[in-house]
């Protein structure tokens, strides 16, 4: 069985991420969406909340499961015997960072490949930070996040603009 890992912060998950999960799920027997701690970012949602939201949005995908991990990505890849790390590439600006990550992970463990899927054209501009900026100022994010999560994401982010914080 070929397992692939889709790692990320997913704070929150967007249509752009879901598109990559769906396409990865057609290429591999099993896809693990891995909610990770990015130490350079201060999340708006806890890891448990992010996992819950992804589970809800991927309920209809038969071969996707959602996990979290706060160590090195490649250690998780080794632990589960995954053959690939799948990342979405939106633009040239994503490339330098992703290329460095891919080379680092390959150096740490040569048996897994990093596979880049180019984003669908209508998701090129979509990012979690864009979602957060728009929602914090009361803007409409319905084209960026799934309907089932819209109210939850909108409310949390709007509250945070008013001064609330998230405890990990
Ligand atoms: O959605 P993001 O924030 O771009 O995801 C980045 C993430 C979480 C995939 C990346 O920061 C990561 O892989 N973090 C785990 C630590 C790690 O393995 N780093 C790479 C080797 S130094």
End-to-end separation in angstroms reads 34 Å
In what order do the strands lie side by side in the largest sheet? 3-2-1-4-5
Question: H/E series, N to C?
Answer: EHEHEHEHEHH
* Beta strands, count: 5
How does the major sheet shape up?
5 strands, parallel
Shape: globular
Percentage of helical residues?
40-55%
Q: Regions with pLDDT < 50 over 5+ consecutive residues? A: none
Q: Helix- and strand-based class?
A: alpha/beta
Strand content: 15-25%
Mind telling me the C-alpha Rg?
16 Å
Mean pLDDT: 93
Task: Report the bound ligands by name, code or SMILES.
Answer: 4'-phosphopantetheine
Describe the protein's architecture and organization.
- The structure is a single chain.
- With 168 residues, this protein is of the alpha/beta class.
- It is 43% helix and 18% strand.
- The chain has helices at 15-27, 47-57, 73-80, 92-108, 128-136, 147-161, and strands at 3-8, 30-36, 64-69, 84-89, 113-118.
- The chain has a 5-stranded parallel sheet, with helices on both faces.
- The structure holds 4'-phosphopantetheine (PNS).
- 4'-phosphopantetheine binds at residues 7-9, 36, 38, 41, 72-74, 101, 104.
- 4'-phosphopantetheine (PNS) binds next to strand 1, helix 3 and helix 4.
